[in-house]
User: Fold this.
Amino acid sequence: MELFDVYPLLDINIVKGSGCKVWDDKGTEYLDLYGGHAVISIGHSHPHYINKVNEQLNKLGFYSNSVINTMQQKLASRLGKICGYDDYQLFLINSGAEANENALKLASFTNGRTRVLAASKAFHGRTSLAVEATDNPKIIAPINANNHVTYLPLNDIMAWKRELEKGDVCACIIECIQGVGGIRLADAGFAQKLQKACREHGAVLICDEIQCGYGRSGKFFAHQWLGIRPDIITVAKGIANGFPMGALLISPQFKPQYGQLGTTFGGNHLACSAALAVLDVMEDENLVENARETGDYLIGRLKELQKENSHITDVRGRGLMIGIELDIPHKHVREKLVYELHCFTGCASTNILRLLPPLCFTKEMADEFIIRLKKALG
Assistant:
């Protein structure tokens, strides 16, 4: 049997990681500003994380949600206090797509509606309704194209209000910093007016914090820069530093019913041990604050470089979620960074480099990246 060939792969086999660095099978060291697509939050192979996961694995890796799991309760309590949502409810699943799928399902259960508003350039996942809310027709199969979703320009509040006024909108789902969309930021004025309009017209406001959340923006959630409190918050990626996990943070206005939502693997003992270890390290090492300070520093350095290098047309982002827009395709720049200068970055569109390093990234590493990026841009 061969692998189903759907990934365009870099010709590199990564076998080891530590902090913000990874190594291939030939022993070459790389600076990691990709973090496995924003999944690595506290750094590769953090010793506390390894110890806690190993400790749990030696006790119990998995049992089902048919019994009490006090680790889930501990995670809910700690996460609520750390992120400022201790009055919300936590539902644990396995991935970001599953988080958005369940958020939209819960919204529809609550108001009985079926229409969703999503932003242009949105990416919310690859499962049934999540992919329909994703603004990319290439990945929406005919069986998923069910006309539930209307795409609207991010920050165009009048367009969103016009649709909400029709009275049939189930939910509005937004990334407060779009990832795949190219590090496009929602405005505070837009977000606050959208929240108000959702409440007026009985729609549920969902903030997809799967990539931009969990400290990456320099606050625990990116929407906290905008002065709003969504009805449902979805998270994944950084929640367990590489262990597959996702979650919904659900407003107290939603009343759970037995059987309403469910999952086999979600919230298992091993996943909870990973997620609790992540919170330990985030608190002990002040990683949210580090993301803000180091991110500000890196954005400043990139804007200085923009003045020197005409290939950089824009630098935008918050914390350690940064987009570098180029006047040339990113492909050759990114390949030079990886193969010649040994530095991983992400990308978006055809001309945007996307930086998503672990939250333990340092100013010294930022300086080193600037040196390598200068060489890559020639």
User: Anything to note?
Assistant: The longest strand covers residues 312-318.
